[in-house]
Amino acid sequence: MASLSIGQLAQQAGVAIDTVRYYERNGLLAPAGRLASGYRRYGTTELRRLCFIRRAKALGFSLDDIRTLLTLSDEQDVSRIREAAQRKRDDIERRIAELERIRAALDTLITACPGHGRAEACPILRALTQEDSP
Amino acid sequence: MASLSIGQLAQQAGVAIDTVRYYERNGLLAPAGRLASGYRRYGTTELRRLCFIRRAKALGFSLDDIRTLLTLSDEQDVSRIREAAQRKRDDIERRIAELERIRAALDTLITACPGHGRAEACPILRALTQEDSP
DNA sequence: ATTGACTCTGGACTTGAGTCCAGAGTGCAG
DNA sequence: CTGCACTCTGGACTCAAGTCCAGAGTCAAT
Predict the structure, then answer these.
(1) What's the pLDDT tens digit per position in A13-29?
(2) N or C: which end of chain B has fewer CB within 10 A?
(3) Per-residue pLDDT at B134
(4) Which element (helix H / strand E) includes A35?
């Protein structure tokens, strides 16, 4: 046990086989050990690393971010990991604020739109067609 | 006046020249009128339409959405415009909820991380390295 | 030994919304 | 008339994160 084919690894980590090879090509996973046949072989270390990547992605980190995180975690650099997490949190906060701004604008327009009648009465069209605000 | 070169149009609408040509190629703007030289000429109609596109993009609509909106606004179909706006609002709401979930998770991790010391004490690393939850 | 499932490679393709380019032709101020 | 800024075209390129492919080789169960 604890020796996995690429298919088993991918399945256990919940990613596609191509994704595993893609991560290897792009330095997120170290080059895998090989059987005589050339088939890749994996152990639990690689499985854990792959799961790390999947979870970090779910937290909104890009593969580039994750490469950094992996380096930092190898270096045991806790303070820099914390900083990276904070930067990402702030980043996500900004995206939330922007989306909320957009949602509020849409809400205003939708509420004001009668949903029938002449186009001139539709505030959504009017808002999109205003002459002001370059 | 009211006759603009592509550069003037782009500048007044706040987009790049290449973007104007790109929109024309992709059916968001009608093929522009031409001078004898082949230079495109624009009027206020096109400027308004281009601004419409810019504003709709700022509201989170994709160019594909906008193509639909433009068709609907030509058809004066107010009820369907309202529906499109509502769908987009719901879409944005889902994205906000997802980002808030991520932010909460990051907040938990950051709060618990001492920011120094051994890696084993860092909950961010621990969370990303857990063996549970495939 | 045969089958069917698996794996290998390098490279091309995808999506969305542009951006950049070379090489040629134009417009206009001084 | 010179020079510089502008515009034209078709096509290639960018970004991220994969996904798909053909053609060849391999593994494991029957």
Answers:
(1) 999 999 999 999 999 99
(2) N
(3) 40
(4) none
Contact assessment for residue B93 and residue A103, using Cβ atoms and an 8 Å cutoff: yes
Whether B11 contacts A133, CB under 8 Å: no
B88 residue type, one letter: K
- In one-letter notation, the amino acid at residue A105 is A
ipTM: 0.85
Using DSSP, state whether B8 is helix, strand or coil: helix
Rounded-to-integer distance, Cα A58 and Cα A87, Å: 16
CB B68 within 8 A of CB B80: no
Contacts of A102 in chain B (CB under 8 A): 58-60, 92
Chosen CATH of A1-59 out of 3.40.190.150, 3.30.200.20, 1.10.1660.10, 3.40.525.10: 1.10.1660.10
Residue A4 DSSP label: B
Distance from the Cα of B65 to chain A's closest Cα (Å) equals 13
At A134, is the pLDDT very low, low, confident or very high (cuts 50, 70, 90)? Answer: very low
